[in-house]
Amino acid sequence: MNRFDYRRAADVAQAVSLAGQAMADAAASTGRARFLAGGTNLVDLMKEDVEAPLTLIDVNRLPLRAIEELADGGLRLGALATNAETADHPLVRARYPVLSSAILSGATRQLRNAATNGGNLNQRTRCCYFYDTATPCNKRAPGTGCGALGGFTRMHAILGASADCVATNPSDMAVALAVLDARVRVTGPQGERTIPLADYHRLPGDQPWRDNTLGAAELVTAVDLPAGDFSAHYTYLKLRDRLSYAFALVSVAVVLARDDAGRCTDVRIALGGVAHKPWRVPAAEALLRGGMPERPLFEQVAARMLEGAAALGDNDFKIELARRAIVRALGQAASGRPQSQTDKRIAAGADMNAEPT
Ligand SMILES: Cc1cc2nc3c(=O)[nH]c(=O)nc-3n(C[C@H](O)[C@H](O)[C@H](O)COP(=O)(O)OP(=O)(O)OC[C@H]3O[C@@H](n4cnc5c(N)ncnc54)[C@H](O)[C@@H]3O)c2cc1C
């Protein structure tokens, strides 16, 4: 049993100051203070001895639960709004259904009722070696090595991995936020700042214990979605070992826009389950812009998105799975037939019927 202090913050400033103080007190170690939101990830990790914070700062009473329209037409999602509240919100469903779909693809209704947006963004990897304290893991215990290298790698990264870490980011929500060009609002000892979602999560490099670019004692207060209506052409396609209650082997979020002639005027694609962060490749998206959304072009886009992919044996299949998933997801989005998260059979895109992938 690890002893820890439990503190309940009354406001954002106090939460940040308590975190700053706890970090300073535990200067010798990294990350010994943790914010507690829904607890669906952090408490599990504490029970498993993977995380042992010296101070838990409960942020659940902070006024960060609202989902509200912004003056510029965007939408602000409070960090403490639950995943269920976010997925079910009428404006999210109407304008950003890819986000609703991605959240609904994950976990269970009970978990989504407890899990918060801030916690979802900051959830830790599901790498089995990160969880298994009997094995080395540079993310859990810096400098000990990586148990996955030479181990069981079915769930592991095929893009952006390093010699120190091959873990993936498990969040479905983050993949949808990536295609919406969301911005993460944070408050820390130096004040407020906004981090583009693309820069929020990071690749492991030689510091795999750092999942993201959040500074010490910084608290996520909200996620802002830019104005836009992404309801006509979108999908969130999640492929996994079970049809529900499982993390993605590969997932694909797509939003796109078409002009009157049917050409793509905008397209954004992000992959989940394949890297330490949601994976976007602007050069691949550019291949589709201005073109007709058809299978040969989708194949080119998939090839470009997966350039440099490298597997480790058990996860070799992921490269081909990702290629097919990108092609299928683009077909779904282009045809306006998004993947259902209730009927989990993989939906075909209109132009996919002739030649199933
Ligand atoms: C059985 C199971 C299945 C799951 N399946 C899926 C799935 O398929 N897809 C998926 O995406 N997720 C899945 N999850 C993960 C789930 O979505 C996360 O556990 C949840 O979103 C975390 O939110 P929370 O509020 O409970 O965070 P907590 O557990 O309270 O916190 C998680 C981390 O975030 C930090 N944190 C929390 N709030 C903030 C904040 N405002 N600012 C900065 N840091 C913060 C905490 O310090 C901690 O490090 C699953 C979880 C379980 C237990």
Quick structural summary:
Among the domains are: 61 residues, Uridine Diphospho-n-acetylenolpyruvylglucosamine Reductase, domain 2; 119 residues, CO dehydrogenase flavoprotein, C-terminal domain (Enolase-like, domain 1, 2-Layer Sandwich), CATH 3.30.390.
Structural summary, described in words:
This protein has 357 residues and is of the alpha+beta class. Among the domains are: 1-61, Uridine Diphospho-n-acetylenolpyruvylglucosamine Reductase, domain 2; 234-352, Enolase-like, domain 1, CATH 3.30.390. Helices cover 29% and strands 17% of the residues. It has helices spanning 12-25, 42-47, 83-88, 90-95, 97-104, 109-114, 117-122, 128-131, 172-179, 197-200, 282-288, 295-305, 317-335; strands at 5-8, 33-36, 55-58, 67-69, 75-78, 183-188, 191-196, 219-225, 234-239, 250-258, 264-272. The strands form 3 sheets. The chain has a 5-stranded antiparallel beta sheet. β4 and β5 (75-78) form a beta hairpin. The protein binds flavin-adenine dinucleotide.
